[in-house]
């Protein structure tokens, strides 16, 4: 049907015929396509399809489908409706992810008030299936596989995730002395100082389903009259709800709208520094190291954090990102851009 692989045709619901298939954007590791169809009842609909190759391509699309499905289960109006993911019948090395297609309002983000309310609703559903921080599948931030191993502690989960990304960064881009010089103090002082108080001293945070890569390139207005929008291209996990992302310009408006529904975590005085930690920008890392030279000065670490540190003490420099598909991967020397990944330039991606 209209040059559409049979593996895709089989998962499209109530399909009568494919009307048109046309390209709508691409990145270094995926291509985007719009698929217009007619259903058996005579109605028409458009789908967005992303196609990637190789093992990492397959796993990234699986992760996107599972992430979007989890978001859709909580806030169906706040993300594209996921349809399916799978593998081409004509090419076992090509894989696809399909969701509802949207025409975005060009160069417009959703209005802060409605967006903040929707994001707060997503984060307020503390329904992690294990009750822990993590996710049930690997998700990808751009072309970077995230370690979503379950953990009882947000500090342990965050530390493990950062170290995992750094191992990949070193393998793909080589050593970066500027960054490497900062890491011991970040791991031993800054991260414990800013995250451990969230879970000690009578404080507690519950896992929230977060987008994982939320910025202005992964959110869009879809209704000009209501100024409402959606989020897309997630690399989700159950984490700390304050890991919101950056919707610049005007980021503060979105934070204010969000916190009108979700209060800042205690200790509130650490809020700005926690956000700086989550951004992982080198300049902010230096500032945090200077601000907290003594690190965490409270009680002893939780047992699960000690176990995590012991498991990782001898494995940090070990290469764990085996390129199973044998393909070359894009390299980034900058930590922040490595974590952020690459996005589609097309207005109609996802």
TrEMBL record:
InterPro entries: Fructo-/Ketosamine-3-kinase (IPR016477), Kinase-like_dom_sf (IPR011009). It catalyses: N(6)-D-ribulosyl-L-lysyl-[protein] + ATP = N(6)-(3-O-phospho-D-ribulosyl)-L-lysyl-[protein] + ADP + H(+). Gene3D superfamilies: 3.90.1200.10. It holds the Pfam family Fructosamin_kin. Its EC number is 2.7.1.172. This is protein-ribulosamine 3-kinase. It comes from Apiospora saccharicola.
């Amino acid at each position: 049907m209209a040059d559409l692989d049979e593996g895709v045709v089989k998962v499209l619901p109530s399909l009568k015929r494919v009307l048109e298939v046309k390209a709508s954007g691409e990145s270094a590791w995926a291509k985007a396509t719009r698929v217009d169809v007619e259903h058996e009842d005579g109605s028409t609909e458009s789908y967005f399809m992303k196609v990637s190759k190789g093992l990492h391509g397959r796993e990234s699309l699986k992760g996107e489908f599972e992430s979007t499905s989890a978001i859709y289960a909580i806030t169906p109006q706040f993300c594209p409706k996921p349809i399916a993911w799978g593998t081409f019948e004509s090419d076992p090395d090509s894989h696809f992810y399909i969701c509802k297609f949207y025409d975005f309002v060009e160069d417009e983000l959703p209005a802060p008030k409605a967006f903040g309310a929707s994001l707060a609703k997503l984060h307020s559903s503390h329904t992690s299936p294990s009750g822990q921080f993590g996710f049930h599948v690997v998700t990808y931030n751009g072309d970077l596989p995230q370690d979503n191993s379950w953990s009882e502690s947000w500090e342990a989960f965050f530390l493990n995730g950062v170290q995992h990304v750094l191992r990949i960064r070193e393998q793909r881009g080589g050593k970066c002395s500027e960054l490497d010089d900062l890491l011991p103090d970040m791991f031993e002082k800054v991260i414990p100082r800013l995250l451990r108080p969230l879970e000690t001293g009578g404080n507690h945070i519950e896992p929230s389903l977060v987008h994982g890569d939320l910025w202005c390139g992964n959110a869009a207005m879809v209704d000009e009259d209501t100024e409402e929008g959606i989020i897309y291209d997630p690399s989700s996990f159950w984490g700390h709800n304050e890991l919101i992302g950056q919707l610049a310009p005007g980021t503060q408006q979105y934070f204010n709208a969000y916190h009108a529904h979700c209060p800042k975590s205690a200790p509130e005085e650490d809020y700005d520094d926690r956000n700086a930690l989550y951004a992982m920008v080198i300049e902010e890392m230096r500032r945090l190291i200077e601000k907290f030279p003594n690190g965490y000065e409270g009680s002893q670490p939780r047992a699960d954090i000690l176990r995590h540190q012991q498991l990782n003490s001898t494995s940090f420099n070990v290469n764990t990102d085996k390129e199973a598909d044998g393909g070359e991967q894009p390299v980034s020397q900058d930590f922040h851009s490595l974590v952020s990944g690459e996005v589609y330039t097309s207005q109609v991606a996802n």
